[in-house]
Amino acid sequence: MVEDEPLLADAIAEWLRGDAHAVDLAYDGEQALERIGVNEYDVVVLDRDLPVVHGDKVCRMIVASGSPVRVLMLTAAADIDDRVAGLALGADDYLPKPFAFPELAARVLALGRRSRPATPPVLERAGIRLDPYRREVHRDGRYVPLSRKEFAVLAELLRADGTPVSAEQLLEKAWDEHADPFTNAVRITILKLRRKLGEPPVVLTVPGVGYRIP
After folding, report:
1. Helices and strands (H, E) in the chain, number of each type
2. What are the chain's domains?
């Protein structure tokens, strides 16, 4: 999330975290480029009128890098010419201010699906059904209440389509950049997730690799 108004940036980040997204914040274009250079993001929500490095230049540099990250340009410039210009820079979507938080969250979710190999809107595997738009999980028809982190971890495991996902990958996708790389948060979350999903166990440990849902 790149926005030079801290109150707005914090509010958007809090809303997206409520939808089980991991969110890092940058308040100018230079900070944004530094974070994008070291982290693999799915979506960048980018204010256009940024200090230090303008949002247009940030967008052009993202596109030129060949990164698969999707860019949602968020700006007060709302007329048709501004939207066309923003999309011409390489942005994948354009949302003018003021906006409704639910619409922003839905657009971020849609762009996130396009930033990796195509996945269906609703994820299903091994009797588990995860609906990211409703934020609901069912196993064999039974509703499973999950915390934000549990939901985010389960979503990553389902998107992997049976491929093992390392604890480091889960930490990057479900937590933010301030997460301690030596934390046992992933292991604890997996334990809670297994308990809530019930028997038979569906989240398997792959020794020395990570976790998978077969």
Report:
1. 8, 9
2. 6-114 (3.40.50.2300), 123-212 (1.10.10.10)
Q: What is the largest CA-CA distance in the chain?
A: 56
Cα distance between residue 53 and residue 32, in whole Å: 9
Q: Which residues, at least 6 apart from 15, have a Cβ–Cβ distance to it below 8 Å?
A: 101, 104, 105
Between 127 and 88, residue with greater pLDDT: 127
Q: Give how far Cα 91 sits from Cα of 56, 57, 69, 135, 201, Å.
A: 9, 11, 10, 27, 42
Average pLDDT over residues 51-72: 91
Q: What is the rounded average pLDDT of the residues 89-101?
A: 89
Measured CA to CA, the distance from residue 82 to residue 80 in angstroms comes to 5
Residue whose structure tokens are 């609901």 = 136
106 CB contacts (<8 Å, ≥6 apart)?
133
* H-helix or E-strand spanning residue 30: helix 29-38
Among residues of the chain, what percentage have pLDDT more than 90? Answer: 58
Task: Report CA torsion sign: 188, 191, 195, 196.
Answer: positive
The sign of the CA dihedral 93, 133, 40, 10 is positive
The model's pLDDT over 76-86, given as tens digits with 9 standing for 90+, comes to 766 777 777 77
d(CA 27, CA 21): 19
